[in-house]
């Protein structure tokens, strides 16, 4: 269980990137009171957790209903994660994980950003949702499934702590420090993305 737990934790941690998410959150809530930030952070993490749980336990069923194989999702998911990794390494948001300029402008005029853009796409974005489906699809038995759930809960907990400390994190790390962390995580994510594609090709090959 420990190996699967660590693998799931690292995968989700790299994709969610609590520090990067907290940086964006701080920018969107710079004129909010601490109480408003905490309330929005809690709601955002709860909604993101519910989204991840839905895709974790219902994602594969949804794929089967659409006629999409898990091997195809592994390949497509690997490509998506590689695009996300490229975005992180280059520190140039393209909308794969974060939000576009127009979405940021819309978010700054919202009274509550807990659901959009915090829960989706900043925390439970396309990369995270795809990853939980792939991780659950590769899990065998209650122990491994439980490990994925625990890993997701820990990542969400760390994300909540980062959101609570968003202002201090931004002041401590600055733009350069945040980008350095993002670039390192992007390199790790690129390796995970390549592995997902390889697993998908190997799963598809015998049936081709």
What this model shows, in words?
Helices cover 84% and strands 0% of the residues. It has helices spanning 2-16, 18-28, 34-66, 70-90, 101-108, 114-123, 126-138, 141-164, 166-204. Helix 1 packs antiparallel against helix 7 (126-138). The relative contact order is 0.23.
Going by helix content, strand content and strand pairing, the class is mainly alpha
Helix and strand run: HHHHHHHHH
Low-confidence stretches: none
Main beta sheet strand tally, sense and closure: none
Number of DSSP helical runs: 9
Work out the helicity level: over 70%
Shape descriptor reads globular
Q: Which percent range describes the beta-strand content?
A: under 5%
Mean pLDDT: 88
Number of strands: 0
Radius of gyration from the alpha-carbon trace, in angstroms: 17 Å
State the end-to-end CA separation: 32 Å
Q: What's the gist of this structure?
A:
Helices cover 84% and strands 0% of the residues.
Labels describing this entry:
single chain; 208 residues; mainly alpha; 9 helices
Element layout with pairings:
Elements: H1 2-16, H2 18-28, H3 34-66, H4 70-90, H5 101-108, H6 114-123, H7 126-138, H8 141-164, H9 166-204
